[in-house]
Amino acid sequence: MLTKEQRFADFVYEMNDWLCGLQYQQIDPRHPLWIGGFMEWTDGKAVSAAPSVLSACYAEGLAEAYRLSKETGDLARQQRYRETLERSLQFLTTLQYTEGNTQHFADWYRPALLEPSTPPIRTATFASITPARAVRAGAIHAVCVGW
């Protein structure tokens, strides 16, 4: 904890406890790929909607909250944040384009999805974001749990 002020730690905990409650934690037969992603928050309430790549931002925050809970010895939050973070990172892997899930794209377009040097692609479903946030969250997690 940089400042060692409890009020900042309390805020991080409050924010991430709330975030954990927004995660799809169980498989829904209607939307099996949503597990690990996060519900939307609209007009002051959780809304069931397809999770997006914004889950990478949430994972980054959860990784930092996990680190804080480990530093302060809050074992209950440490376990909750770790489990939520791991589900989130698993969800994010489902958003990655691979050879196997891009066969329906034209041959000339598929390399634009698969080559890491290609700029991010904007679609109606996913925000334009590089995979750096997901990688950072995963790296922070790996360091925190000692992988």
Secondary-structure blueprint:
Blueprint: H1 6-21, E1 40-42, E2 45-47, H2 55-72, H3 75-93, H4 110-114, H5 132-145
Antiparallel strand pairs: 1-2
Helix pairs in contact: 1-2, 1-3, 2-3, 2-5, 3-5
Polypeptide structure, described:
There is one protein chain. The chain has 147 residues and is mostly helical. It has one domain (6-96, 131-145). It is 49% helix and 4% strand. The protein contains 5 helices and 2 strands, in the order αββαααα. Helix 1 crosses helix 3, helix 2 packs parallel to helix 5 and helix 3 packs antiparallel against helix 5 (132-145). The radius of gyration is 17 Å and the shape is elongated. Residues 121-131 have low confidence and may be disordered.
Number of helices: 5
Shape: elongated
Order of helices and strands: HEEHHHH
Low-confidence stretches: 121-131
Structural class: mainly alpha
Strand order across the biggest sheet? 1-2
- Number of domains as seen in the coordinates: 1
Summarize the amount of helix as a percent range: 40-55%
The count of DSSP E runs of length 2 or more, i.e. the number of strands, is 2
Short description:
It contains five helices and two strands; from the N terminus they run αββαααα. The protein has 147 residues and is mainly alpha-helical. A hairpin with a 2-residue loop joins strand 1 and strand 2 (45-47).
